[in-house]
Specification:
alpha+beta, ten-stranded antiparallel sheet
C-alpha cells in the first residue's frame, strides 16, 4: 500500500471514541514503505493496552504483550536507522532495562485531518497516535510526529480473532 493509499483509507474511516479503545489490542504494521515498517515487528511489538483515558501502555512487547516498554527510553532518531536484524538481536537484551509498569500515554478526543477521534498522546515523546474505526474489533492508527511521514498500523481487540 502506498502512503497516499493508507492516508485515503484513514480519511475514509469514521472516528473511534475513547471508550471504544478500552482494553488490550494486538498490533500489526500496515506496510507503506515507512522506515519503521520492519522495526516494530523486529523489536517484538505485540500491541497496546488502554486501561483508561489516563492509563495507556503504548508499547507492549513479548509473548501476549506481557512487557510494557517505556517509550521515553527509546532513541527513535537512532533506531529508525538500524537494520531490522540488529534490532531483532538487541531488543530482547535491552527490553528488561526499559520495561515499566507505569502508563506512558493518555487518550483524548482530538481533531486530526478534520475529524475528532480518539488520540493517544505519549507522555514523553512529541507523538500522537490517532485512531479511526475499521469495525467493532479493529482500528487503523496513524502515528503523527512532527517532521516525519505518517506511520500506519492496525489494532485488533485482543481475543477477537
Amino acid at each position: 500500500m502506498t502512503p497516499a493509499d493508507a492516508l485515503a483509507w484513514f480519511d475514509g474511516l469514521g472516528p473511534a471514541t475513547v471508550d471504544e479503545m478500552s482494553g488490550r489490542w494486538r498490533g500489526e504494521v500496515v506496510p507503506t514503505g515507512h522506515k519503521m515498517d520492519p522495526l516494530l515487528p523486529a523489536a517484538g511489538w505485540w500491541g497496546k493496552a488502554f486501561d483508561g483515558a489516563e492509563d495507556v501502555h503504548p508499547l507492549l512487547h513479548g509473548a501476549e504483550g506481557r512487557v510494557a516498554v517505556n517509550p521515553s527510553l527509546l532513541p527513535l532518531g537512532l533506531v529508525v536507522h538500524l537494520p531490522p536484524a540488529l534490532v531483532r538481536l538487541t531488543f530482547p537484551l535491552i527490553r528488561p532495562l526499559i520495561a515499566t509498569r507505569k502508563p506512558q500515554a493518555r487518550l483524548r478526543m482530538m481533531e486530526h485531518r478534520g475529524v475528532v477521534s480518539a488520540t493517544m498522546i505519549y507522555d514523553a515523546k512529541p507523538i500522537c497516535d490517532v485512531f479511526r474505526r475499521i469495525d467493532e474489533t479493529s482500528v487503523l492508527g496513524l502515528m503523527d510526529q512532527r517532521g516525519a511521514e505518517p506511520f500506519f498500523f492496525k489494532l485488533t481487540r485482543a481475543g477477537s480473532g
